[in-house]
Amino acid sequence: MKKVAVVGYAQHKILPNAGALNEVELIMPVVHKVFNDLGISQDDIGFTCSGSCDYLQGAAFAFVEGLSAIQTSPPIKESHVEMDAAWALYESMLKIKMGDADTALIYGFGKSSPGNLDSIISLQMDPYYISPLWPDRVSLAALQAQILLQQKIITHDEMMATVIEARNNAANNPNALLTDHVSEDLYQADSLISSPLRGFDCPPISDGASAMVIASEDKAFEFTDNPIWIEGIDHSIESSNLGSRDLATSPTIQNAITNLNLKNINFDVAELHTQFSHEVPFLRKLLNLTNVPTNLSGGPLVGNVMMCAGLDAIGKTFQSLVRDQSDHGIAHASSGPCLQHNMVVHLERHK
Amino acid sequence: MNDSKINLLEAPFELSYKYKRSSGPIMSKFFEGLSQKKIFGTKSKAQKVFAPAAEYDPDTREALTEIVEVGPGGTIESWSWVNSPRSHHLLKTPFAFALIKLDGADTAMLHMVSDCDESDLSTGKKVLPVWSENPTEAITDINYFILES
Amino acid sequence: MSDDQAPKDYKESFIHLEYQYTAGSATTTFLNQVKEGRLVGQSCPKCKAVYVPPRGSCPRCGIATSIEVPLTDKGCVESFTVVHIPIPGNPIVPPYVCAMIRLDEADISFLHLVQDIEIDQIRIGMRVQAVWKPKDEWTHSLENIKWFAPIDEPDVDVSTLRFKPS
Predict the structure, then answer these.
(1) Domain residue spans of chain C
(2) Rounded to a whole number, what is the distance in Å from the CA of C57 to chain A's nearest CA?
(3) Per-residue pLDDT tens over the stretch A130-175
(4) Does residue A9 sit in helix, strand or coil?
(5) Would you give the distance in Å from CA C9 to the centre of its chain?
(6) What is the pLDDT of residues A48-64, one digit of tens each?
(7) So where are chain A's domains?
(8) Which CATH topology does C72-158 take?
(9) What ipTM was assigned to the predicted interfaces of this complex?
(10) pTM (2 d.p.)
(11) Residues of C with CB below 8 A from B12's CB?
(12) How far apart are CA C32 and CA C36, in angstroms?
């Protein structure tokens, strides 16, 4: 099967409230940017796939409106995932590996500002036992944070250090939403939202869009001198039965470590789809990334466009490898409460 | 005459759906039990008890059919104190979400703990359910749990 | 499944979410004009197609439609259907007619109502014009047009109206 590379990526400036800009107006500039950077048009794209959540917009099939941003005449091969666009990337990879396309355009988009994100996300879970209790995403993440702290897998200091580092790293990212530095005093003074998570431990409500182009090895060098190869990509999901999971571990991350042979690779950079501060030290320990520069973009704590942040982790890793001409990058995308569903991507500069 | 041109057109809207959900044979027994102030779990061949009653063992994929009674009390496995309940939360005064392992069960149930202070809570504390006056055969037939005094 | 395992009665599950919707630049511009009693489409700078109501982009070229094009409120019926079920929350009495209205000089049609004519007289290609509500009732909505009514002009051959190839 053909190897696949990331050849281009663009991210909209992350906004706290896009206001008059609707989804189409957020998507168009990033798609045009990645096309212009590569000197291509929709005619060069064999397959288009998007990731979004209809209920951020508040209507069934709302994602179809996003398609207005794309040239669809003549008709295009297109698909959509009701997931983070990282999974649109996965579907696009499958399409290329099966031989149905040589190039793909992936885009993710989401405006969290119009709705109540807490109530929307609480409805994505078991409708019999969990959603009727309306548990919000922060409280659910907090339940896992509490367990990790109790079992001394992570510490409060590590959570604080993560927040401070994220804000410092935001200076590297012109698209970041939150760029103010946070001091230890400021962090300690911040009130708890759902213990042990403070406001700073949580991601900001964000609006935005991102786009990426991938290509098979037959085409990649037509688009760029710096294709970054998707050496490995793996994802698996735990049960929706929250109470049956051991939140102190991550079998899905263990699967990825095994399936992608990650133990034997020295990574140069990592970007994790860690929406809450405690998830960073937890995943860094699991993935053995303690000495690897992580979330140099600032990560979701400085800007978290729902349905894009996972694709953004992959895109930021791609950009790092190109900019620094380094060799191995690891990107992570996640979905569901308490890191239920995880994808790990190994990007490599050399084919 | 006012210039009625607006740069940003906004309007509030509400989205509501009423669904009818069927519970299936296992969960309907669980919900029927709740309306009678009982909590049921299901037991696998390996003797693992899932509560609330699960239809399948997520690790082995075994279809679970043996119903067993658990609780009604349980132990806190994890908790998160919500000092300022959000608009959609069911409880309007400070409370905790918690994972509670009911007595006799091997897995935890998500629910809420109320009528206490944040400082009273810790993992391992024992709790009891407070039952609704008007059960509707739903998970909310337990209003919340309270600390066993 | 045996009877004693049959599921109990259905239980109601109520989903309720609140949003603050924002219209987007193209829709905002369009509705600002509708508030003044004007129908204004947008056209693509590349292929010149005129879209109404505009979405801000041209599906043929994948670029922003930046040019505003004032349109008449006259057009023809490109297609129609007779609806026999009521609209929840709407006083309209079935049977009523929903039609795709193609305004003059527009490249696409949009959905609206057709009235002031016997249902069995309605036909594709029929010339129509908007019937507006009184000016003091106008809001930022296409409901400022109550419906489209027939006008005394010859029918149009709709095969000439196909979305022009680029």
Answers:
(1) 22-71, 72-158
(2) 6
(3) 999 999 999 999 999 999 999 999 999 999 999 999 999 999 899 9
(4) strand
(5) 41
(6) 999 999 999 888 888 99
(7) 4-116+205-223
(8) OB fold (Dihydrolipoamide Acetyltransferase, E2P) (2.40.50)
(9) 0.95
(10) 0.94
(11) 18-21
(12) 7
